[in-house]
Specification:
Elements: H1 2-19, E1 27-36, E2 41-42, E3 46-49, E4 53-54, E5 58-62, E6 65-75, E7 80-87, E8 91-98, E9 105-112, E10 115-121, E11 129-147, H2 149-158, E12 166-173, E13 176-188, E14 193-201, E15 205-214, E16 217-227, E17 231-240
Antiparallel strand pairs: 1-6, 1-17, 2-16, 3-4, 3-16, 5-8, 6-7, 7-10, 8-9, 9-11, 10-11, 11-13, 12-15, 13-14, 14-17, 15-16
């Protein structure tokens, strides 16, 4: 009788341990809070036409932003996994610094940055608590790029254009690939539900290119290089199937 009880207890323990296992072929989805905190710096605004000229002391900074993030993970085996991460495109505001400081907000844009990661999990696949590291890449592009009336007026003044003659200044932000360095921890509450927290670092640069038109005719172009280098925390609820 005692042997039977012990045998049943052993089977139950093994079953309960393996229920939490992350093994080859498992899929996991997650959703939660995604935060972008740029560690930014910029070069001065520079006119490239009609003549090359630097706006002395000009600069800009990018504010942080929060959004809703989603991820999908596939386990190659109990330790290696591939993960895709995507968030609702966060909106970033660009604030003037130096000689552009009095303008305040210069413009805004939404960032698209789908990410693909290779991840390595520590501890056994049956463990509830598992730290991990990841390395991958993201392709970043921008939409809804807009300049504020204050920035448009400052450019008109710099070019000595009457406000009534200034049709518009449009801006574009350059797209680019960037590496993603990732580390985090995962905790499994039961065979399906869990939670994960990670922090990513993305060495990211872009260039803002501006075109100013008067009465529909291009009269000047300018640009500014931005170093964003965001730190990106991600807190998600996960479901394994």
């Amino acid at each position: 009788m005692k042997k039977s009880i012990l045998a049943l207890a052993s089977v139950a323990a093994l079953a309960s341990g393996s229920a939490f296992a992350q093994k080859a072929g498992d899929w996991q989805v997650g959703a939660g809070w995604l935060h972008f905190a740029p560690q930014d710096s910029s070069k001065p605004l520079t006119f490239t036409s009609p003549v090359a000229a630097v706006v002395p002391g000009s600069g800009a900074s990018v504010g942080s932003s929060d959004t809703f993030g989603m991820n999908l993970t596939y386990f190659i085996d109990s330790r290696w996994a591939v993960e895709g991460v995507l968030g609702v495109p966060p909106k970033f505001k660009l604030e003037g610094e130096g000689t552009l400081g009095p303008i305040g907000e210069l413009g805004s844009a939404r960032q698209w940055s789908p990410t693909l990661l290779a991840k390595y999990y520590f501890n056994d696949g049956e463990a509830k608590f598992r730290p991990y590291v990841g390395l991958g890449a993201t392709y970043v592009w921008y939409s809804d790029v807009n300049l504020t009336p204050g920035m448009q007026g400052a450019l008109a003044s710099r070019l000595r254009l009457p406000a009534s003659a200034l049709s518009a200044t449009t801006a574009k932000l350059a797209s680019s690939f960037a590496a993603v360095f990732n580390a985090g921890v995962a905790y499994q509450f039961d065979p399906h539900w869990g939670m994960a927290f990670s922090v990513s670092y993305i060495p990211l640069r872009t260039t803002a290119k501006l075109t100013t038109t008067a009465r529909g005719i291009p009269v000047a172009t300018s640009e500014a290089s931005l170093k964003l280098n965001p730190i990106v925390p991600y807190l998600a609820v996960t479901y394994k199937f």
